[in-house]
Structures are given as C-alpha cells and as structure tokens.
C-alpha cells in the first residue's frame, strides 16, 4: 500500500513538474476591432517609427522600463521570438517608458535586443493606450486593430503564442 | 428592496517564506483564481531605485521608510472558469497598532509633491512603478508593482485584501506582515 501511495505521489509530482515546464502561454483576445492609437517615436538609433507605417503586418508592441523586473525577465524570450518572426514579416517594437538613450544603452549590455527600442520619454504615448501596469504587450493585427493583450511577462518564443500572431497574417 | 452583495470571506492559503540568500520575507496568498504575493523590500533597495531618478532627498527617505513591498497579483485561472479577477486597492484595509486604515496609494504620493520635490520624470516612476490602484486580470494575466503601507520599518500589520472574481466580491486576510527593517536594525 505504501509503495502504491509513493508511486501515486511520484506520478502527481511528475505531472506537476511537466505542466510547469510546458506551461501554456496565453494572451487575451480583444474583441470589437478597436484601433490601436498611432504614435511616432524615435528608436535608440534616432530613427522615427510610426505605428501606421507598419499597416499590413502584425506588430507586437511591448511597454516596458529597465527598472521593472518582469520586463527584464521577458526581454530575452522576446529577442528570440523576434529572430523567428523577423523573416516572416511580423514586426516587434519595445516602447520604453520614461527613460533616456544612455540608460537604455547601459541596460542593453546586460539585456541585448536586436529589435527596435522606441523611447517614450515623456510618457505621453503610453497614456494613449489602455495600459495599467508594466510590462503590457499588445499584438496589433495587419488592419491596425488590437488583436491581443498580455499583462505581465510571457515566454514570447512559445510556439502557441507565436502561432496566434502568425495566424493574423 | 436593495440587497447589497455579501463578500465571500475566503479561508485562503497563505504561505510564508524567507529567502535564504537575502533574508527577505514573502507572503503568498492563494484563493480561488487570485494569487497575491508580497515580498519585503529593504529601505536601502528603495533608496537605490529612487536615487537614480529626480527625487529630492526628503522624498526618497519618505518613500524608503514607508514599508514598501514588491507586490505581484495574478489571475491563475486555476478554476478553469475563465473569469476575470479585478482589484481596487482603495478597498484594502490594514490593521496596525489597533487602528484600521487604507494603504498608501500612488495617487496620494503624487498629489503630495511639488515639481521641486519630484520632477515630472520622477513622477512617471511612481505612476508606473507603484501598483495600479484598479486593475482587471484575465486568466494568466499578472502584474508586478511596488506597494507602500505608510508605516515605519519593522512594523507588523494585518492586511485585509478584497477583490472581485467573476463579478462577485471576495475578501481574505494576510496576518502578521512584517515591514523590512532599515539598515541600522540589521546589525
């Protein structure tokens, strides 16, 4: 009986551990075809990005700061995701809130990213979006409407998440 | 006749733990679909954060000594119902030294400073660094932020938390939360 209970315990433990290792990554679908607020922001290299210029392709937009722990946590997986999506015509923009180029430059030594980092130094752009806390990520459909929202960090190179973005094309 | 909704008082599971590396304490409240984590934050950790932004020295000290925790609220979606969890921090109550009060919210901090005490850029750190006062979480959503309780380092208090789950009011209690001590108490 004791052996049986031990095995049952191990099976439950294995199921929990397996579930934790392959935890499904979800986003919230946003109904109602709400247009994403447009913006024009410079990236850390001085190039101006307008959201409307990306019309026709899905865009992942991540709001973050360097001092937000979960923002830092998800950046490596975002970078991995971008390397997968870049060739597929899917854009990714990280909107840093309230910090300057020097701060982001120093930070990027520890958290290198290859996708554009846009600077919303005054915080005016983030106020136009329905963001309550950081990080928050939106997926914009090719027609410029908000398709998905994720509050908190995610493992962005998760196949289920990326397939949901790919399906918008 | 109007019938006020009665809050379901949860017999929640509260896990208390101590980080072996840094000695900081954590309280993890789990009930239904909501999870609330409060992690002690040393006043020096807060000083280090705010000194990098344009706050005056007195404001940095006020913030650092305000019993700040790192707070995480999550809709775990464990029930499988897919229902939203929403919070309103104005409804949370703390008991300290026999008195009941609300917690100190970002709106109160922001209203108390002149531009000389906290620049517009510094205020953005509070606007986005302190926990949102109201927020709705769908399954798998979670948020991180700082929470201040407005009592001295080392204080002990109870926190009555409340939330709505699928539109129904719920509440629970986290007892004996300890504010992190200041450096002089660590020796």
Describe the structure.
The complex is a heterodimer of chains A (169) and B (187). Chain A is an alpha/beta fold and 169 residues long. Chain A has helices at residues 2-21, 69-85, 101-110, 124-128, 159-166; strands spanning 28-29, 40-42, 48-50, 59-64, 91-97, 117-120, 136-140, 146-151. In chain A, helix 3 (101-110) links the parallel strand 5 and strand 6. Chain A is globular, with a radius of gyration of 19 Å. In chain B, strand 3 (25-31) and strand 4 (34-40) form a beta hairpin. In chain B, 35% of the residues are buried. In chain B, 20% of the residues lie in helices and 40% in strands. In chain B, helix 1 runs antiparallel to helix 2. With 187 residues, chain B is an alpha+beta fold. The interface between A and B is medium-sized, with 20 and 24 residues.
Please outline the helices and strands:
The complex is a heterodimer of chains A (169) and B (187).
Chain A (H helix, E strand, L loop, with lengths): L1 H20 L6 E2 L10 E3 L5 E3 L8 E6 L4 H17 L5 E7 L3 H10 L6 E4 L3 H5 L7 E5 L5 E6 L7 H8 L3
Parallel strand pairs in A: 4-5, 5-6
Antiparallel strand pairs in A: 1-8, 2-3, 4-7, 7-8
Chain B lengths: L7 E2 L3 E6 L6 E7 L2 E7 L2 H9 L5 H8 L3 E8 L9 E4 L4 E4 L2 E4 L3 H6 L8 H10 L4 E4 L4 E7 L7 E10 L2 E11 L4 H4 L1
Parallel strand pairs in B: 1-12
Antiparallel strand pairs in B: 2-3, 3-4, 4-5, 5-10, 6-9, 6-11, 7-8, 7-11, 11-12
Helix pairs in contact in B: 1-2
Provide a compact summary of the structure.
The complex is a heterodimer of chains A (169) and B (187). With 169 residues, chain A is α/β, with parallel strands linked by helices.
List keywords for this structure.
heterodimer; A: 169 residues; alpha/beta; Glutaredoxin; six-stranded mixed β-sheet; two-stranded antiparallel ribbon; 8 strands; globular; disordered N terminus; B: 187 residues; alpha+beta; Immunoglobulin-like; seven-stranded mixed β-sheet; 40% strand
């Amino acid at each position: 009986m004791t052996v049986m209970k031990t095995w049952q315990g191990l099976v439950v433990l294995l199921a929990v551990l397996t579930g934790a290792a392959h935890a499904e990554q979800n986003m919230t679908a946003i109904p109602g075809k709400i247009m994403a607020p447009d913006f024009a922001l410079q990236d850390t290299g001085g190039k101006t990005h307008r959201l409307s210029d990306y019309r026709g392709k899905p865009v992942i937009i991540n709001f973050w700061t360097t001092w937000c722990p979960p923002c830092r946590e998800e950046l490596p997986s975002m970078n991995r995701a971008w390397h997968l999506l870049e060739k597929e015509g899917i854009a990714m923009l990280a909107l840093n809130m309230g910090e300057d180029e020097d701060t982001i430059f120093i930070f990027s030594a520890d958290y290198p990213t290859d996708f554009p980092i846009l600077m919303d130094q005054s915080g005016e752009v983030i106020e136009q979006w329905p963001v309550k806390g950081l990080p928050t990520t939106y997926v914009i459909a090719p027609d410029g409407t908000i398709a998905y929202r994720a509050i908190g960090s995610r493992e962005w190179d998760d196949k289920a998440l990326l397939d949901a973005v790919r399906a918008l094309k | 006749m109007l019938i006020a909704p009665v809050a379901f008082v949860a017999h929640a599971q509260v896990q208390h733990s101590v980080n072996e590396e840094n000695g900081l304490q954590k309280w993890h409240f789990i009930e239904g679909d909501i999870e609330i984590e409060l992690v002690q934050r040393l006043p020096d950790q807060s000083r280090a954060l705010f000194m990098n932004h344009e706050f005056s020295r007195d404001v940095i000290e006020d913030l650092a000594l305000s019993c700040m925790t790192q707070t995480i609220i999550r809709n775990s979606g464990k029930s499988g119902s897919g229902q939203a969890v929403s919070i309103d921090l104005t409804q949370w109550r703390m008991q300290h030294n026999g008195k009941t009060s609300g917690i100190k919210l970002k709106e109160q901090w922001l209203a108390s400073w002149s531009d000389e005490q906290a620049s517009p850029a510094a205020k953005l750190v509070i606007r986005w660094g302190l926990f949102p006062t109201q927020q709705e979480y769908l399954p798998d959503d979670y948020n991180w932020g700082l929470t201040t309780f407005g009592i001295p380092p080392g204080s002990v208090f109870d926190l009555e938390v409340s939330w709505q789950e699928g539109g129904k009011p719920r509440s629970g209690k986290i007892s004996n939360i300890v504010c992190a001590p200041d450096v002089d108490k660590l020796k």
